[in-house]
Amino acid sequence: MKTLFDKTKILNMEMKNRFLRGALWEDLADEKGHLTPELISIYEELAKGGVGTIITGYAFVTKDEQPNPGMMGIYDDSFIPEYKDFTQKIHNLGSNIIMQIVYGGFMTNFNVGERTIWGPSTIKNENTGTWAKEISKEEINYLINSYANAAKRVKESGFDGVEIHCGHGYLLSQFLSPYYNKREDEYGGSIENRGRIVFEIYKAMRAAVGENFPILIKLNSADYVSEGGLTQEDSLYVAKKLADLGIDAIEVTGGNESIKEVTENNLGAARTKVVVSKDRESYFKDYAKKLSDLVNIPVILIGGNRNLDIMEDILNKDYAQYFSLSRPLTAEPDLISKWESGERKRTKCVSCNQCYNTPGKRCILNIRGL
Questions:
Q1: d(C-alpha 125, C-alpha 25), whole Å
Q2: What's the rounded Cα separation, in Å, for the pair 260 and 125?
Q3: What's residue 370's pLDDT?
Q4: Percent of the chain having pLDDT more than 90?
Q5: N or C: less crowded end of the chain, CB within 10 Å?
Q6: Which DSSP string do the residues of 14-63 spell out, in sequence order?
Q7: What is the pLDDT of residues 125-150, one digit of tens each?
Q8: Does 145 map to a domain?
């Protein structure tokens, strides 16, 4: 019987348990994307709390495209020395650390009038009103190179791996979604074409970091819009293609923050409003099972993971091999250590999402002393 505290590997990255901290925008980097003492302290607390692997908040790969304030950057070599010190601190505390990288596109209302925002087509974010212009083929090539260069910096900085963010309505997931991708060239139309930019970015990143450095992807299972969005069938096609190309693990997510219908139904970014019952926990598990049956690489399940018994059942039914938690570790950074010591109680996180509205993404229960 497999356990959540098995020692395993993703490629050559040793995992002391099957838990990851899922990426979370902390809003604590400085205006250029550099680390601050407050941001570093959050990661140190997580590492002390026993989670085997931490995925950073998303880091932007091009200097002029910062989707949100307080994001980490990885767009030039100036970041490498401070990240080397940072990753060493986390390693000394016993955790791996992976950097997630992103191009945001119209998932922003930050400095909108001061920069060009790319989309697969000329499209509008239904929730913020932000417009994106259709990216040209020349600009696509620039973006591919930006991802590759960012991945190389991630490796040189001492991170244990790099994760591509391809979910929640950010640019790469926009390309996958026919809701937004109306192109008529080789980057639009069929799912092979809509996925082309993702495949090309992965291949460029692999060439930049070599065969022995883990590359993961956070991939939308579906947009969960009633008509015209990314479907599970198309998502599975993309996942299988990436697995065949050599990607090392897939983190399952879903939803689209830019589509009103989706956010109104609380599926904007892998989070239902309140997880109140066991049947609503681990809510992407059925897609994860389909994916695990299709590919021979690790599947990481995020979204509503709250209860050890449920996660153990998912693990031993081979729905997923790893589990990402974000809000629970915001509420209880030492949750994994508590579980490893023998506590079986469910996390105190109630998925109220108030942490997303506080500086540093702090749990409101902790702020109130609960």
A1: 19
A2: 9
A3: 46
A4: 74
A5: N
A6: EESSSEEEPP---S-S-TTS---HHHHHHHHHHHHTT-SEEEPSPEESST
A7: 888 888 999 999 999 999 999 999 99
A8: yes
In the chain, which ranges are continuous DSSP H helix? 37-48, 80-92, 137-156, 171-176, 191-194, 196-209, 232-245, 260-264, 285-294, 308-316, 327-331, 335-340, 364-367
SS3 160: coil
CATH code assigned at 39: 3.20.20.70
The bridge status of strand 118-119 relative to strand 8-10 is unpaired
State the total domains in the chain: 1
Residue 286: how many other CB atoms lie within 10 Å? 12
**How far, rounded to the nearest angstrom, does the alpha carbon of residue 167 sit from its chain's CA centroid?**
7
Three-class SS state of 131: strand
Q: What SS3 state is found at 239?
A: helix
Which residue range is the domain that position 285 belongs to?
A: 8-367
Q: Is residue 305 part of a domain?
A: yes
Mark the ranges of the chain whose per-residue pLDDT is less than 50.
Answer: 268, 270, 273, 370
Q: Which one-letter amino acid corresponds to residue 237? A: Y
- Give the pLDDT score at 138: 98
For position 126, what pLDDT does the model report? 87
**Is 232 within a domain?**
yes
Separation of alpha carbons 189 and 10, rounded Å: 34
What's the rounded Cα separation, in Å, for the pair 309 and 302?
A: 16
Q: Whole-structure pTM over 0.70, yes or no?
A: yes
Q: Which residue has the tokens 């209880």?
A: 332
For tokens 């008509």, name the residue.
227
Contacts 24+ apart (CB under 8 A), 264-267: 265/224, 267/224
CA distance 258 to 125: 5
For residue 197, CA distances in Å to 12, 174, 188, 224, 293 come to 27, 11, 10, 22, 25
